[in-house]
Design goal:
With about 300 residues, this protein is mostly beta strands. It has one domain: Methylamine Dehydrogenase, Chain H (7 Propeller). Helix content is about 0%, strand content about 45%. The strands form 6 sheets. It has a 6-stranded antiparallel sheet with strand order 1-2-25-24-23-22, with no helix packed on it. It has a 4-stranded antiparallel sheet with strand order 5-4-3-26, with no helix packed on it. A 4-stranded antiparallel sheet has the order 6-7-8-9, with no helix packed on it.
């Protein structure tokens, strides 16, 4: 890992603060990404290589989940359903509002069905809707609370964080394959499955991402952490939505509060190398509030 870092730059009239390891084959300064901005209730696209591709859509509703779906559309979750947005025209092409309480997720499956998941007084609820948005499956986990992002692995298993510091892997039969307590986690945001069979866990206020071996439930790697040498400087606060890059790096959203100007408190995106070095970060309080999810497009 080269230890040369560059601080950039002014994009148009908007300040962007970032850093990167110099690499001729990989340049984080050209990242293009879509963000879910929780505090300003908007989604936006940022293209560091070409600002003409930037856009912002005001939602006026809370949104958390993001997914690229067919026909060049973006699927986003809303409190009680989902929306589909055409990424070319930036127009909302579909709004589905159901009778759901505190929905957090919207996942489009290959067969055209949609998964929603959220919280209620009776625990976590997960729904499967058909193409016409009719509920065809519903499961409830009364023993679990406070789901954020749900992910589904290649075997159809449901993976989510809950109960502050638990990772649960289940399915629509409600069989519990794993219920893991993650030390140091606080409000786990997301769980992803790796090709090696391990999982990545974004640990919220734990300010880190951990890789866990499901064979023994042991942590085998950490990204970030409260004792990371750049934790204070960059304002590590709450690690939320994340993406594993092709080169093994991880980009994670660093949520910094509910207020529209809380994005001043720390960087909004952080990129870690496999050896836990920060090679790039991004912050632009003029454009974004506090973000909690990201899709990297490059």
């Amino acid at each position: 890992m080269k230890k040369i870092f560059l601080a950039l730059s002014i994009l148009g009239s908007l300040l962007t603060i970032s850093s990167c390891a110099v690499n001729k084959e990989y340049n984080p300064q050209k990242h293009k990404f879509i963000l879910s901005d929780e505090s300003r209730k908007q989604v936006l696209q940022v293209d560091l290589a070409n600002t003409q591709n930037d856009w912002i859509i005001k939602l006026n509703v809370k949104s958390r989940d993001l997914q690229l779906i067919a026909d060049n559309k973006l699927l986003i979750s809303t409190d009680n359903g989902y929306r589909e947005i055409d990424r070319k025209s930036l127009k909302t092409t579909k709004k589905f509002n159901g009778k759901f309480r505190s929905n957090m997720n919207a996942i489009r499956l290959d067969d055209g069905s949609t998964i929603l998941a959220g919280n209620s007084r009776n625990g976590i609820n997960i729904y499967k809707l058909d193409k016409n948005d009719k509920i065809i499956k519903h499961i409830n986990f009364p023993q679990y609370r406070n789901i954020r992002l749900l992910n589904i692995d290649n075997d159809g298993k449901l993976m989510f964080g809950c109960n502050n510091n638990h990772v649960v892997i289940s399915d629509f039969s409600k069989k519990i394959y794993h219920d893991i307590t993650v030390a140091g986690a606080r409000h786990i945001y997301e769980v992803q499955k790796l090709a090696n069979g391990n999982i990545l866990v974004a640990n919220g206020y734990g300010q880190n991402i951990t890789e866990i071996n499901l064979k023994n439930n042991k942590v085998v790697k950490e990204y970030g952490g409260k004792n990371h040498p750049q934790a204070q400087k960059l304002g590590f606060h709450f690690f939320s939505g994340m993406q594993l890059m092709k080169n093994g790096n991880i980009i994670v959203a660093n949520w910094t509060g509910h207020g529209a100007n809380d994005s001043n408190k720390g960087v909004q995106l952080i990129e870690f190398s496999p050896n836990n070095k920060v090679i790039w970060h991004w912050k632009n309080p003029r454009r974004t509030g506090s973000v909690h999810n990201v899709i990297v497009l490059d």
